[in-house]
Amino acid sequence: MIKACIFDMDGVIVDSAKYHFLAWQRLAADLSITFTEEDNEKLKGLSRVDSLERILEKGDLQLDNDTKLALMDQKNQWYLESIKEMKPEEVLPGVREFLVSLQENGIGIALGSSSKNAQLILEKCNLTTFFKSVIDGNKVTFSKPDPEVFLKGASELNVSPKDTVVFEDAIAGVAAANSGGFFSVGIGDAASLTEARIVIPGFENFTLSALQSIVEDQQNN
Ligand code: B16
Ligand code: MG
Questions:
Q1: Threshold 0.70, pTM exceeds
Q2: Nearest protein CA to atom 16 of ligand 1, as residue
Protein backbone atom coordinates (compact mmCIF):
# COMPACT_ATOMS: atom_id res chain seq x y z
CA MET A 1 0.00 0.00 0.00
CA ILE A 2 1.34 3.42 -0.95
CA LYS A 3 1.55 5.74 2.04
CA ALA A 4 3.74 8.48 0.58
CA CYS A 5 5.37 9.83 -2.57
CA ILE A 6 8.69 11.65 -2.70
CA PHE A 7 9.44 13.81 -5.72
CA ASP A 8 12.76 14.89 -7.13
CA MET A 9 12.40 18.46 -8.40
CA ASP A 10 14.43 19.31 -11.49
CA GLY A 11 13.19 17.16 -14.39
CA VAL A 12 10.24 15.76 -12.41
CA ILE A 13 8.23 18.76 -11.20
CA VAL A 14 9.79 21.55 -13.25
CA ASP A 15 12.34 21.80 -16.02
CA SER A 16 14.95 23.93 -14.31
CA ALA A 17 17.73 22.13 -16.25
CA LYS A 18 17.49 24.76 -18.99
CA TYR A 19 18.30 27.50 -16.46
CA HIS A 20 21.18 25.50 -15.00
CA PHE A 21 22.44 25.10 -18.58
CA LEU A 22 22.45 28.84 -19.32
CA ALA A 23 24.30 29.63 -16.09
CA TRP A 24 26.88 26.84 -16.42
CA GLN A 25 27.45 27.69 -20.08
CA ARG A 26 28.12 31.33 -19.20
CA LEU A 27 30.58 30.27 -16.49
CA ALA A 28 32.30 27.74 -18.78
CA ALA A 29 32.65 30.40 -21.50
CA ASP A 30 34.42 32.69 -19.00
CA LEU A 31 36.85 29.82 -18.35
CA SER A 32 37.23 29.13 -22.11
CA ILE A 33 35.62 25.70 -21.74
CA THR A 34 33.07 24.53 -24.29
CA PHE A 35 29.84 23.42 -22.61
CA THR A 36 27.09 21.85 -24.70
CA GLU A 37 23.52 20.71 -23.98
CA GLU A 38 24.92 17.17 -24.07
CA ASP A 39 27.39 18.08 -21.31
CA ASN A 40 24.50 19.58 -19.34
CA GLU A 41 22.54 16.30 -19.57
CA LYS A 42 25.36 14.57 -17.70
CA LEU A 43 24.98 17.00 -14.78
CA LYS A 44 21.34 16.06 -14.14
CA GLY A 45 20.78 15.40 -10.45
CA LEU A 46 24.41 16.11 -9.47
CA SER A 47 25.10 18.61 -6.69
CA ARG A 48 26.44 22.08 -7.54
CA VAL A 49 29.99 21.20 -6.48
CA ASP A 50 30.01 17.91 -8.42
CA SER A 51 28.70 19.75 -11.50
CA LEU A 52 31.53 22.29 -11.31
CA GLU A 53 34.10 19.49 -10.90
CA ARG A 54 32.82 17.80 -14.09
CA ILE A 55 33.10 21.05 -16.04
CA LEU A 56 36.63 21.74 -14.77
CA GLU A 57 37.62 18.16 -15.64
CA LYS A 58 36.33 18.71 -19.18
CA GLY A 59 38.48 21.83 -19.49
CA ASP A 60 41.43 20.09 -17.81
CA LEU A 61 41.55 22.94 -15.32
CA GLN A 62 42.78 22.66 -11.72
CA LEU A 63 41.71 25.45 -9.37
CA ASP A 64 42.03 26.10 -5.64
CA ASN A 65 39.04 25.81 -3.31
CA ASP A 66 38.45 29.55 -2.88
CA THR A 67 38.28 30.03 -6.64
CA LYS A 68 35.85 27.10 -6.94
CA LEU A 69 33.62 28.59 -4.24
CA ALA A 70 33.62 31.96 -6.01
CA LEU A 71 32.75 30.30 -9.34
CA MET A 72 29.85 28.33 -7.78
CA ASP A 73 28.58 31.53 -6.21
CA GLN A 74 28.73 33.36 -9.53
CA LYS A 75 26.91 30.51 -11.32
CA ASN A 76 24.24 30.51 -8.64
CA GLN A 77 23.71 34.28 -8.97
CA TRP A 78 23.07 33.84 -12.70
CA TYR A 79 20.82 30.84 -12.05
CA LEU A 80 18.82 32.82 -9.46
CA GLU A 81 18.26 35.62 -11.99
CA SER A 82 16.42 33.07 -14.15
CA ILE A 83 14.48 31.21 -11.48
CA LYS A 84 13.21 34.29 -9.72
CA GLU A 85 11.20 34.88 -12.93
CA MET A 86 9.68 31.35 -12.89
CA LYS A 87 5.89 31.10 -13.13
CA PRO A 88 3.35 28.45 -12.04
CA GLU A 89 2.82 27.64 -15.75
CA GLU A 90 6.30 26.10 -15.76
CA VAL A 91 5.18 23.16 -13.60
CA LEU A 92 5.46 20.12 -15.89
CA PRO A 93 2.21 18.74 -17.42
CA GLY A 94 0.01 16.69 -15.09
CA VAL A 95 2.13 17.29 -11.96
CA ARG A 96 -0.27 19.66 -10.17
CA GLU A 97 -3.25 17.35 -10.86
CA PHE A 98 -1.31 14.34 -9.56
CA LEU A 99 -0.33 16.22 -6.37
CA VAL A 100 -3.98 17.20 -5.83
CA SER A 101 -5.08 13.57 -6.09
CA LEU A 102 -2.40 12.46 -3.60
CA GLN A 103 -3.53 15.14 -1.20
CA GLU A 104 -7.21 14.18 -1.59
CA ASN A 105 -6.32 10.56 -0.83
CA GLY A 106 -4.27 11.32 2.28
CA ILE A 107 -0.96 10.23 0.77
CA GLY A 108 2.11 11.96 2.23
CA ILE A 109 4.08 14.20 -0.11
CA ALA A 110 7.76 15.16 0.20
CA LEU A 111 10.41 16.76 -2.00
CA GLY A 112 13.83 15.12 -2.31
CA SER A 113 16.04 17.42 -4.35
CA SER A 114 19.79 18.03 -4.60
CA SER A 115 19.11 21.72 -5.23
CA LYS A 116 19.77 24.39 -2.62
CA ASN A 117 17.21 26.56 -4.41
CA ALA A 118 14.27 24.14 -4.13
CA GLN A 119 12.21 26.26 -1.70
CA LEU A 120 12.38 29.29 -3.99
CA ILE A 121 11.25 27.26 -7.02
CA LEU A 122 8.33 25.73 -5.08
CA GLU A 123 7.26 29.25 -4.03
CA LYS A 124 7.55 30.68 -7.54
CA CYS A 125 5.48 27.78 -8.90
CA ASN A 126 2.82 27.95 -6.15
CA LEU A 127 3.57 24.40 -5.00
CA THR A 128 4.75 24.93 -1.43
CA THR A 129 1.49 23.95 0.27
CA PHE A 130 1.52 20.44 -1.23
CA PHE A 131 4.77 19.42 0.46
CA LYS A 132 4.67 18.31 4.09
CA SER A 133 8.41 17.80 3.98
CA VAL A 134 11.06 19.48 1.82
CA ILE A 135 14.50 17.88 1.88
CA ASP A 136 16.91 19.77 -0.36
CA GLY A 137 20.63 20.32 -0.89
CA ASN A 138 20.81 22.41 2.30
CA LYS A 139 19.67 19.52 4.49
CA VAL A 140 21.85 16.63 3.35
CA THR A 141 25.45 15.64 3.89
CA PHE A 142 25.68 13.09 1.10
CA SER A 143 24.64 13.58 -2.54
CA LYS A 144 22.60 11.12 -4.62
CA PRO A 145 23.22 8.17 -5.26
CA ASP A 146 23.37 8.15 -1.45
CA PRO A 147 19.77 7.61 -0.23
CA GLU A 148 20.02 10.21 2.59
CA VAL A 149 17.76 12.78 0.87
CA PHE A 150 14.90 10.28 0.46
CA LEU A 151 15.39 8.59 3.86
CA LYS A 152 15.11 11.98 5.55
CA GLY A 153 11.91 12.69 3.62
CA ALA A 154 10.38 9.35 4.64
CA SER A 155 11.40 9.94 8.21
CA GLU A 156 9.80 13.43 8.29
CA LEU A 157 6.61 11.94 6.82
CA ASN A 158 6.82 9.11 9.33
CA VAL A 159 6.55 6.39 6.69
CA SER A 160 8.66 3.39 5.81
CA PRO A 161 10.59 3.36 2.47
CA LYS A 162 8.80 0.14 1.46
CA ASP A 163 5.48 2.02 1.48
CA THR A 164 6.90 5.01 -0.40
CA VAL A 165 7.30 5.76 -4.10
CA VAL A 166 10.16 7.97 -5.33
CA PHE A 167 9.87 9.79 -8.67
CA GLU A 168 13.26 10.55 -10.26
CA ASP A 169 14.61 11.58 -13.66
CA ALA A 170 18.32 10.98 -12.97
CA ILE A 171 20.25 7.71 -12.90
CA ALA A 172 21.93 8.72 -9.61
CA GLY A 173 18.50 9.54 -8.13
CA VAL A 174 17.01 6.18 -9.13
CA ALA A 175 20.04 4.45 -7.58
CA ALA A 176 19.49 6.48 -4.38
CA ALA A 177 15.83 5.45 -4.25
CA ASN A 178 16.64 1.77 -4.83
CA SER A 179 19.38 1.64 -2.24
CA GLY A 180 17.06 3.25 0.31
CA GLY A 181 14.46 0.52 -0.25
CA PHE A 182 11.90 2.74 -2.05
CA PHE A 183 9.76 1.86 -5.08
CA SER A 184 11.51 3.85 -7.83
CA VAL A 185 9.57 5.38 -10.71
CA GLY A 186 11.79 6.79 -13.46
CA ILE A 187 10.57 9.87 -15.29
CA GLY A 188 11.78 10.05 -18.88
CA ASP A 189 13.53 7.51 -21.04
CA ALA A 190 13.35 3.79 -20.15
CA ALA A 191 16.54 3.13 -22.15
CA SER A 192 18.62 5.24 -19.77
CA LEU A 193 16.75 4.68 -16.48
CA THR A 194 17.25 0.92 -16.61
CA GLU A 195 17.39 0.45 -12.83
CA ALA A 196 14.00 2.04 -12.14
CA ARG A 197 11.16 -0.35 -11.17
CA ILE A 198 9.00 1.32 -13.81
CA VAL A 199 9.52 4.29 -16.14
CA ILE A 200 6.84 6.74 -17.27
CA PRO A 201 7.29 9.64 -19.68
CA GLY A 202 5.76 12.15 -17.24
CA PHE A 203 2.61 12.82 -15.21
CA GLU A 204 0.31 13.80 -18.06
CA ASN A 205 -2.63 11.35 -17.92
CA PHE A 206 -0.94 9.39 -15.11
CA THR A 207 -3.24 8.69 -12.18
CA LEU A 208 -2.89 7.55 -8.59
CA SER A 209 -4.99 4.46 -9.31
CA ALA A 210 -2.65 3.52 -12.21
CA LEU A 211 0.31 3.88 -9.84
CA GLN A 212 -1.41 1.80 -7.15
CA SER A 213 -2.13 -1.07 -9.52
CA ILE A 214 1.42 -1.06 -10.93
CA VAL A 215 2.93 -1.13 -7.43
CA GLU A 216 0.56 -3.90 -6.29
CA ASP A 217 1.31 -6.00 -9.40
CA GLN A 218 5.05 -5.65 -8.89
CA GLN A 219 4.84 -6.43 -5.19
CA ASN A 220 2.85 -9.61 -5.90
CA ASN A 221 5.41 -10.84 -8.45
P1 B16 B 1 21.53 24.04 -7.05
P2 B16 B 1 17.23 17.80 -8.55
C3 B16 B 1 19.47 19.16 -9.09
O4 B16 B 1 18.10 19.16 -8.80
C5 B16 B 1 19.71 19.44 -10.57
O6 B16 B 1 19.22 18.35 -11.35
C7 B16 B 1 21.18 19.58 -10.81
O8 B16 B 1 21.43 19.87 -12.17
C9 B16 B 1 21.75 20.71 -9.93
O10 B16 B 1 23.14 20.85 -10.10
C11 B16 B 1 21.43 20.37 -8.46
O12 B16 B 1 20.04 20.22 -8.30
C13 B16 B 1 21.93 21.46 -7.51
O14 B16 B 1 21.20 22.63 -7.74
O15 B16 B 1 22.74 24.58 -7.74
O16 B16 B 1 20.28 24.85 -7.29
O17 B16 B 1 21.77 23.79 -5.58
O18 B16 B 1 17.13 17.11 -9.88
O19 B16 B 1 17.94 16.98 -7.48
O20 B16 B 1 15.92 18.36 -8.07
MG1 MG C 1 16.17 15.65 -11.24
A1: yes
A2: 115
Give the CATH fold of the 4-15+91-220 domain: Rossmann fold (3.40.50)
Q: Which amino acid is at 124?
A: K
- Domain topology for 17-83: DNA polymerase; domain 1 (1.10.150)
Give the catalytic positions in this structure. 8, 10
User: Is the per-residue pLDDT at 116 higher than 80?
Assistant: yes
Q: Is the pLDDT of residue 44 over 90?
A: no
Q: How far is the CA of 134 from the centre of ligand 2 (A)?
A: 15
DSSP output for 51-94: HHHHHHHHTT----HHHHHHHHHHHHHHHHHHHTT--GGGBPTT
Nearest ligand, CA of residue 43? 1
Which residue in 131, 64, 65 sits closest to 102, CA to CA? Answer: 131
**Would you mind telling me the total number of residues written for the chain in this entry?**
221
